[in-house]
């Protein structure tokens, strides 16, 4: 993880269109929409309102009246992994989707219109990690960042960073990537700003998960957030630990969707 909060701009900023390649939205597809809303509403203080229904029942999470994330309901007959998916901004989702295919990735959903909100595709990189692509229209994406309850960072955990770095550079046009000298980590930049990370862990990658993106949400107090996660029926996967980026922990919600929480350094 690098520079939590760097992915979306100034604290509390009202966002214009995101630059291509910038994570602009996170979305969760779950089986129990009502219970999932209650979990995240209690944990992050989110309120909800209906969103585009092209992929089934879907709500947008709001914080102080501004859009933060989306939660949709999986069809009962679809036994898909319940997971948070980051969406990367694109000026032309059809072209981006074609580039994904040409670079060895796959496109599983779309491109398709989400009402007047925008146009989307959901795909995976050559290693199988799932991500979304968003071309904004009426809906630009996450409109508040840098406060508790908002996405702070997105990190890809994969076998080897170098093997997928070129894919993301080609698909999203990252003009600068910074390779860590200490471990297998690459930080992706847009306009000189760090926006996402790629972490290679080799054989330590869980076999039951494979390569995957993880969303970090900012919290005011990591330890208090962990207690609340457990009280709400979730699980702590990795206990809180201090890092140069803040106090971080990994958790899972009611249905097993994994995410991380981070308390900014004081």
Automatic annotation (TrEMBL):
Specify the signal sequence span: none
| VOC domain segment(s) | 150-264
Entry protein name: VOC family protein
């Amino acid at each position: 993880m690098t520079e939590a909060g760097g992915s979306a701009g100034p604290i509390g900023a009202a966002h214009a269109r995101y630059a291509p390649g910038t994570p602009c939205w996170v979305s969760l597809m779950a089986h129990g929409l009502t219970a999932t809303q209650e979990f995240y509403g209690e944990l992050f203080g989110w309120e909800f309102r209906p969103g585009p229904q092209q992929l089934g029942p879907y709500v947008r999470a709001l914080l102080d009246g501004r859009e933060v994330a989306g939660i949709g309901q999986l069809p009962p007959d679809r036994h898909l992994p319940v997971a948070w998916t980051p969406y990367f901004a694109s000026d032309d989702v059809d072209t981006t989707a074609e580039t994904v295919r040409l670079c060895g990735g796959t496109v599983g959903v779309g491109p398709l219109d989400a009402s007047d909100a925008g146009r989307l595709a959901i795909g995976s990189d050559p290693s199988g990690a799932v991500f979304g692509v968003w071309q904004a229209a009426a809906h630009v994406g996450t409109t508040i960042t840098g406060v508790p309850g908002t996405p702070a960072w997105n990190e890809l955990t994969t076998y080897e960073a170098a093997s997928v770095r070129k894919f993301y550079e080609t698909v999203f046009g990252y003009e600068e990537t910074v390779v860590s000298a200490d471990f297998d980590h690459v930080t992706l930049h847009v306009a000189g700003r760090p926006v996402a990370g790629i972490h290679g862990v080799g054989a330590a990658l869980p076999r039951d998960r494979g390569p995957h993106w993880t969303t970090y949400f900012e919290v005011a107090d990591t330890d208090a957030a962990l207690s609340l996660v457990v009280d709400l029926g979730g699980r702590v996967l990795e206990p809180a630990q201090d890092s140069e980026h803040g106090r971080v922990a990994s958790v899972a919600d009611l249905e097993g969707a994994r995410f991380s929480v981070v308390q900014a350094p004081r």
